[in-house]
Amino acid sequence: MAQEIVDLFKKITGHAKEYGFIYPSSEIYDGLSAVYDYGPNGVELKNNIKQYWWAAMVQMQENIVGLDSAIFMHPKIWKASGHVDAFNDPLVDNKDSKKRYRADVLIEDQIDKYIAKADKEVEKAIKRFGENFDEALFRKTNERVLANVEKATNLATRLANAMREGNMAELGAILADEEITDPDNGSKNWTEVRQFNLMFYTQLGNISGEEGKLYLRPETAQGIFVNFLNVQKTTRQKVPFGIAQIGKAFRNEIVARQFIFRMREFEQMEMQFFIRPGEEMTWYDTWKRFRMQWHLALGTPQDKLRFKDHDNLAHYANAAVDIQFEFPFGFRELEGIHSRTDFDLKSHQELSGKKLQYFDPELNESYTPYVVETSIGCDRMFLAMLSNAYCEEVIPDADGKESTRVVLTLHPALAPVKIAILPLLKNKEELTAAAKTIYNKLKKEFSCQYDEKDAIGRRYRRQDAIGTPFCLTVDFDTLENGTVTLRDRDTLKQERLTVAQVEDIVRSKVSLAKLLEGLDL
Ligand code: GAP
Q: From ligand 1's centre to the CA of 205, what distance in Å?
């Protein structure tokens, strides 16, 4: 990673801790790798993300219903789903550093290095040739750019083939051929690459051995599949219909890095849409479109989001795509949309011996529905929103000078605090009393913060740093005519308004309903 990217990412993670968004888990015991706690502002932002997802995926959809299934499930579920046998990552140890890595991630990093080399050539040429530079032509014709792109493409194909075939020896050969070294100490002294199952497990009460082995679910989806008939019968939904849930998932990730991007305990927001066999590609396209709309409605720039088809299809899928977001460390998977065929329902039917079929009254026949799934990590969405919102900018001060502020330009509907109520002075009882009256009124509708400590400028900065879209200041005019000053986080404009006018403005800006208006399935 380039130094400025590392620095930016460090700033974002530092900011997240300093302002109560995310803390390392068990910090006083030196932390627990890839596990994090959400602080007071973090939990609000995370809840707002979940609320937006639930509103768009359940509340707005006549034919989608919710579920909250248990984390522990019968161990056979994970046999049927294929997780016991196939939920593996290729693991490799370095004999010198004693560090453990994912072989495919080391190879992906090597691909990124080739691409970065090509980009560097382009950057150098931009500097050299200035405004008249034709980047597209340069990329097509420059030998060094072409050579690096070719290396990246060939390596990506070789990696994809090895992963598809589960060929661990080939992954080992790639590490050797590419002379890939341990990022920690530069050693090439690797063990053989081997498969590592990512599921955590524990033991059920008084049952010892394999029979009592309970897995912590690695995805929430299986809780939906095994409840398919319960939900269909109790809600009398007709195919096509969906079941959605938000819940914790656990994966014993080998490489846990990049903050909350890859965690061992995380939260998923998943929806399984049950459809007639043969209709999967139409629904797959529909859900791709809708999910992209959901992201764009938050104001995320279009060029920071893209679709990326899977190079390798999982055993259960006949089509799969990621929505990637441009994190500070590059484009990475944010959400997956998968056409899962009838694999899961059929496997559970076979192993449990219970029928999981649907009688379609219009066709007058029974079948095992096909499934299109949308699956997004809540924590990854949180990181996307945090990194997209983090902004350092120079703004004019009250005294005519300039200063730098850190502001989170979060969509107001996601912001942890919607409005801060600030008495101009702390030691004027009339002002603090009037401010508290307003706070007590507004807090019933909005997430508010009352703050009287420090100079007003510093209080504004504190609110900017957590992304509060509005600050309301109570001053001496308030005591005379009931008006207050409303400051807008993004424009910095200050307006003199009545409290009722403030309420209207805040209501319309933070409204989830408005956000949902732009979405249509
Ligand atoms: N049910 C399908 C499924 O679980 P996945 O691509 O393995 O598919 C879906 O995971 C989403 O869950 C990912 O797009 C990502 O946002 C999130 N996710 C997966 N592993 C994660 C991890 N270790 N930490 C944080 N989020 C993760």
A: 29
Kindly give the number of the ligand 1 atom that is closest to the alpha carbon of 338.
2
> Which amino acid residue places its CA nearest to atom 4 of ligand 1?
219
- Could you give the residue range(s) of every CATH 3.40.50.800 domain in the chain? 412-517
CA 66 to chain CA centroid, nearest Å: 20
Q: What is the mean pLDDT of residues 403-421?
A: 97
Q: Which residue has the tokens 């409290």?
A: 499
Is 267 near ligand 1, meaning CB less than 6 Å away?
no
Q: pTM for the whole thing?
A: 0.91
Is the distance from the beta carbon of residue 380 to the nearest atom of ligand 1 less than 6 Å?
yes
The 10s digit of each residue's pLDDT in 6-65 is: 789 999 999 999 999 999 999 999 999 999 999 999 999 999 999 999 999 999 999 999
Q: Tell how far the Cα of 367 is from the centroid of ligand 1, in angstroms.
A: 29
Which residue owns the Cα nearest ligand 1 atom 19? 377
Distance 377 CA to ligand 1 centre (A): 5
Which part of the chain is CATH 3.30.930.10? 2-87+198-386
From ligand 1's centre to the CA of 243, what distance in Å? 18
Protein residue with its CA nearest to atom 21 in ligand 1? 262
Choice from 38, 254, 380, 382 to test ligand 1 binding pocket (greatest atom count within 8 A of CB): 380
The domain at 412-517 falls in which architecture?
Answer: 3-Layer(aba) Sandwich (3.40)
**Residue 419 structure tokens:** 């409005």
Q: Are 94 and 187 a contacting pair, CB within 8 Å?
A: yes
Instruction: Give the ranges where 342-455 is alpha helix by DSSP (H).
Output: 343-352, 378-389, 429-442
CATH domain 2-87+198-386 topology? BirA Bifunctional Protein; domain 2 (3.30.930)
83 lines ligand 1 (CB under 6 A): no
When pLDDT is averaged across residues 422-437 and rounded to a whole number, the result is 96
487 pLDDT band, cuts 50/70/90, is very high
Q: Take residue 72 and report the two structure tokens written for it.
A: 């522990």
Structure tokens at 482: 């009931």
Nearest CA to 266 among 2, 46, 422, 517?
A: 46
> Does residue 12 sit in helix, strand or coil?
helix
Tell me the C-alpha distance between 419 and 485, whole Å.
Answer: 12
From the list 294, 218, 268, the residue with the least C-alpha distance to 376 is: 268
In whole angstroms, give the CA distance from residue 296 to residue 241.
Answer: 24
Two tokens, residue 172: 């080992």
* pLDDT at residue 298 tops 80: yes
Given a cut of 90, whether residue 131 has pLDDT beyond it is: no
Q: Whose CA is nearest to atom 25 of ligand 1?
A: 262
Give residue 395's Cα distance to chain centre: 30
Measuring from atom 10 of ligand 1, which residue has the nearest CA? 375
Taken in order 453, 456, 459, 463, the sign of the CA dihedral is positive
